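Quick start: load a record and inspect it. Here is Barstar (Barnase inhibitor):
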Amino acid sequence: MPNPPRWRLLDMNTDVTLTECADVDGLFVDHVFPVEPDYERYTLVGCAPSGPLRAAVDGTGPAWLGNVLLEGAHVPDVPVSHRCGDGCAECWDIMEELLDVRVVGHRTTGDGSGRLDIDLDGHRRDSDSNGGGTRPPTVAGHRLFTCSGTEETAAGECRDVTNLFHARPEVWPEGPPLTLRGCRTALTGPVEAELAHVRVDGTVNSMGWGHRVVGNVLDVAPSALGDDLVDITLDARIPEPLAANDRPLWDMWRAGGPTEPNGWAPLERSDRHLWVRAAAIHRIHAPDKPAGTVYHLDGRFVTDYDAFYCAIGEAINGPGGWFGGDLFWLHENAATGDGGATPGFRLVWHHSEVARAHLVPGYDRKSWDRAVTFDDLVQFLTQEGVRLELR
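Running the structure step on this input writes:
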């Protein structure tokens, strides 16, 4: 059995170690996450289109709309118990967003109103709104907007939308029931624990909320991994299990992490995303380096959005380093510090022409939104106070 054990369970309330184990059956599963969504056919019933939707229907604009927001119109007689503090109907419960939407047909509604029934292909953004998309909200129609990043463009209104509210497969289904293999300490009764990854040098990295262990002990049995060890079976399930192809990355970080730069370069974008996520969990918190430190970003392999975060993480914090995985965390680290660099730092982006050629306008089917371009990143970094030099 490895010494120290690979995994540790920390009590969610006290942070006390409950047990340590060599392996966790049910943490790595043979799936790819998140699950690719199924495209569906929706109909906007009694629609009065405007803007880009009108152009798509008329054929004067593209049929593809990108993302479409449906905002439920307020119903005056919604019970007070279902209203928010400012008196409006439950705002978040009457919002839905459709992704990668295309107009595929239309016809007159047939009630003499002159409105249209418009058919769309797309898929619903996974969220908890409206019972996870299974419960139609009480609304008097929908206002429609096309969305690009934070920009919204009015696209008309409709009386109803069909086929939007029904059960769908989980985008990130829970893992199977857990068995903790080779545990040093037996457990009994209910368990509420944070799961942490333990490196060979003893460094402990908490996995976060998506990997918590909450359930009851079903069985404790002697383990084949050692005479003094036990296997613990629980009815707990990991909320967001790791994909089986994550395991080599975790083995590498377990052994100490990357030692050479650009270990992520041969990976496809999806695996680069896994790299950034593993780097975030295994980051070593240390004081920001002194003001005036100059950082060099190797841009030779920045051919996609996730590659940028792999590269800037290494530029700031060395091989396997992390400096954010999206614009929110890039802002937090660049503008407010605590990411390894004192705000206002100088960043030299070498071979920036690679990113300029690859990070171009379009639709990103990884983030399901407008693609973040090279120019977007340059503008963002500059606005966050980074003294950027492109080479």
